[in-house]
């Protein structure tokens, strides 16, 4: 996301627009955590993971008083428009705020879960995928005994995007996705199939939102059904959200920041930038928040199944 | 490219089609370097860099006799169709061979240069970009003295794609691209600009096909013009072609292999698979080889300039 | 460990000694999983994680019958001496076998836990440390909210070596080690201290052998005591055992393989190679197995405490 | 080196000693580039490559006037002792300064070249080795054609330490070291040998200080002698000096910083800390600078030769 921040700052400066950074998102608008940003503020941040402006949940922003305070603060700071980077919580806050106070807002979709409408890819998704497949590659190296099954739990909230991509990219033998609601039985079949093939070991990717309750739970159930299995569990956790951003995310973030400023200059507002195919587009926040888009790639699902036959 | 090989093999097997691997490309067709491939042949290759089937230039294939020998060999081997992975040399050979002998051929674009028509991205491009930005990140760490300029030469033959992407992703202060034919003067201006900003150091990306003759040459010319500069040169070389493939390349390769087989099954031939936006497409080899497509992304070029103002 | 295998093979070949590789350790001696090894068998393996000869637990080897079968097999295969790579299970088996049958054996200490006597460092330890600090670095990137504590569980069986090294290298705010038997109270104090310093977030490394029961357990207890904390847990798992070996491990493995063969040639047996300071040494298996060496580095412990004051 | 800075700061604070950081080394002492350092100044720097205090050559410090100015500056700043991190240039300056002005100085050996006396390992050496073997691994992936030779030039000034370590760790087929003064003939023999073995390709590591003049020069000479070779050259350059420090370097740097402060507290001065075997030691600067220690590891040299027979 730092690539996006850098692009916003430098594109704005190119158009002689002053930029104020706000720490801790909406909370920072309430607490007046402002910082002037110039060209130098964003030098050497494009390779940094995380975000230099930090982030935070903000309950106060959900109240009218909170938003009023925020508005007064940014007005007294001389801020005329906002670029908000985040997930659907950020989008929701931006939409409400921008309706209440008529301040132009452009959003940039930043979350590893890739579950936002209005874009094919969110910032952080490619980096997270690369982190997960590196972990899977390392686990694959240790596969040398028979009857060993590795359960790897990956992030995504209720989205199976990372699980599916990393599962295909890592050559996982089975993937448990929330969207598919597959029970343990399918997984047990996969395990029997792998054993019949005399496979040395097996890697199973479990999305954290999977309805069966997470890697430890599934491992427990599977162990009861097939006791001779040697089951190992990894819960990757927050390392999926950090690390130096990938090339794809840096380019995408840079494009998104650039487009966000240009769109604001064109008078666009209450929208999010996104990438559709190869085109940078904008989508009204209303639409982005209300559209129920099944983000799982059907073709990739079909491919995942074939790879394991 | 191993992801593509794996997908071809497993998709074919899914359709009860036998697969023969050919080592060393067209040379292997002439030298009878055949190997039966089954499900197990492609286990654990998706994370490997390079290609398990090796590759080679093949001059013999450019002759009628060479191709005749190749055809007889593959026919006696029982091969009915070909999937060829490579760059435009591979495409050209595939087109000619497939016209001469009426054997169905699907190509998969595999080269880091991203200069093939028919696809937005070639296999290996994303991985190479990630390798280059990792190198730039490390160089950036060492930037602590004034007046220091790092010249980093990257691959791409006559294409500036990697130079542009990695230049933006790495936050390079200047990028020399073959397509733009910029002379040294523009670069000297950038250097003066950076110095006036009291920048600690500066990273310049030079595409290997740049008309000014490569990083060492440019460094020499610049040193003569601005003698007080401390210039350091890195020629990244072939490490850009290796390494574990990125998540993006593994998914893309898997898709391409899957589509290639499906297209052959549908009777498609003399074409290359590719990705356009989000869609997997095929493009006749005739068109892919003859279309002069300027692959440099204008929007990214514009962004690169603004990032450095 | 592949570096060691490669060094054994090439050093033996240099002395005109034939080498037979045995898959799956002692189990492979019983099952006759032999493979001739020559110079080419070990090309391009030095960068591979895991071990090309696989590994396995072997219960049969613990029985006289199992060992007798193993001995007959290796004798009929023409094997005159053994190099066994592994942990204390491997050492124990080697010692017993070598006493029963008077066959020369040299061991090489290969385990990430670094808890073997006879050597300052075991093969795999440095690589595992690097893997863990990379994970900690990524988690550190995501630290932006207050009151957030990350619990990272690392391997080591009953050894806190990795936890201590990676804890210091990753700048962790607290480390729970089995050897110290620290209760949760010390950890709670650290958390209060970090909060008083207004630290954004905190990383706690927990060795898997810690007496408090693992990261999830500790997280539960801490959450009850300090409910406002936002606790995130990562269980790194087996990725710590894989991945391309580090430079240190490749050099160490190569030295160990080389010394193992030389020692056998000098008539040494029933011993393990090891590194003490800078010297390669050998230690009789008897001594290596019976000596209770507290492997935790007192100086590093003291340093870890000071870094967090 | 940031690990060392962090350890100096936190160890000093532990002993209630105030710390002033000086940017740009000795130049900063002359230009008064001082910064108060507290506990927070060194949070989150242990994973950063480079050094937060920057570095610079300083010609002025070689003059009496320059040193006088520096001394007055640090005295007025209230500085009573110095910790200087760097190579032999740093050591020399420290020794002279500390003799002239009787101010206690401890040095910490920080250079990737590993050519300083008084220590087995310098800070940055392990990280550089890991960077080089990653590059070699990637190049190895691309090796698929016959008759291809890759020349990789690595750093080290006049030291072949990195070339030897990375050459062994990367499985290079030949290594050119300054200390050995081997001519091109030995290299040509190695190439003929590899060809006779039908090796697909070959990696040659060339230390930058090698007397034959660098990778491009050697490549030229070899190409003239064996024209059918396809020679590719990589000059790794300054990426070897950057990147996140390895686990080994972080621990070593932390120890060195800790010891440096403790030694100053004990009244030690005009010395450098170092690691000998497993022990942290100090060596008088006089001795460290005047001892001609051949740093190449004879055992490793012997091993390198055997690995390639």
From TrEMBL, chains A, B, C, D:
Keywords, comma-separated and alphabetical: Allosteric enzyme, ATP-binding, Cytoplasm, Glycolysis, Kinase, Magnesium, Metal-binding, Nucleotide-binding, Transferase
Listed cofactors: Mg(2+)
Record's subcellular location: Cytoplasm
InterPro entries referenced in this protein's UniProt entry, alphabetically: ATP_PFK (IPR022953), ATP_PFK_prok-type (IPR012003), PFKA_ATP_prok (IPR012828), Phosphofructokinase_CS (IPR015912), Phosphofructokinase_dom (IPR000023), PKF_sf (IPR035966)
Boundaries of every Phosphofructokinase domain copy: 1-262
Catalytic reaction list: beta-D-fructose 6-phosphate + ATP = beta-D-fructose 1,6-bisphosphate + ADP + H(+)
Class of the enzyme per the UniProt entry, highest EC level: transferase
Enzyme Commission code(s) on record: 2.7.1.11
Pathway the protein acts in: Carbohydrate degradation; glycolysis; D-glyceraldehyde 3-phosphate and glycerone phosphate from D-glucose: step 3/4
Family per record: Belongs to the phosphofructokinase type A (PFKA) family.
NCBIfam families in the cross-refs: PFKA_ATP (TIGR02482), PRK03202.1 (NF002872)
The protein's name in its UniProt record: 6-phosphofructokinase
Biological source species: Sphingobacterium thermophilum
């Amino acid at each position: 996301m730092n690539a996006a921040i850098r692009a916003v700052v430098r594109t704005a400066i190119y158009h002689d627009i002053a930029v104020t950074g706000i720490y801790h998102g909406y909370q920072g608008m309430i607490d007046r955590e402002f910082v002037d940003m110039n060209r130098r503020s964003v030098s050497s941040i494009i390779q940094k993971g995380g975000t230099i402006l930090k982030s935070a949940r903000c309950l106060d922003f959900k109240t009218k008083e909170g938003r009023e305070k925020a508005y007064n603060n940014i007005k007294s700071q001389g801020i005329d428009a906002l670029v908000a980077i985040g997930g659907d919580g950020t989008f929701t806050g931006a939409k409400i705020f921008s309706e209440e106070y008529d301040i132009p807002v452009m959003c940039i979709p930043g979350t590893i879960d890739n579950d936002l409408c209005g874009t094919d890819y969110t910032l952080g998704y490619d980096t997270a995928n690369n982190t997960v497949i590196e972990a899977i590659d390392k686990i694959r190296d240790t596969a040398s005994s028979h009857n060993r099954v590795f359960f790897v739990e990956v992030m995504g909230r209720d989205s199976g995007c990372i699980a599916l991509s990393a599962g295909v990219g890592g050559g996982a033998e089975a993937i448990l996705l929330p969207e598919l609601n597959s029970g343990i039985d399918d997984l047990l079949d996969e395990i029997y199939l792998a054993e019949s093939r005399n496979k040395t070991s097996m890697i199973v990717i479990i999305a954290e939102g999977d309805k069966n309750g997470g890697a430890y739970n599934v491992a427990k159930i599977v162990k009861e059904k097939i006791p001779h299995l040697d089951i190992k569990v990894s819960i990757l956790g927050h390392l999926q959200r950090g690390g130096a951003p990938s090339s794809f995310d840096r380019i995408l973030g840079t494009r998104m920041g650039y487009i966000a400023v240009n769109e604001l200059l064109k008078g666009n507002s209450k929208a999010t930038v996104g990438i559709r195919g190869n085109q940078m587009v904008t989508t009204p926040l209303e639409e982005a928040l209300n559209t129920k888009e099944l983000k799982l790639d059907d073709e990739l699902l079909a491919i995942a199944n074939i790879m394991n036959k």
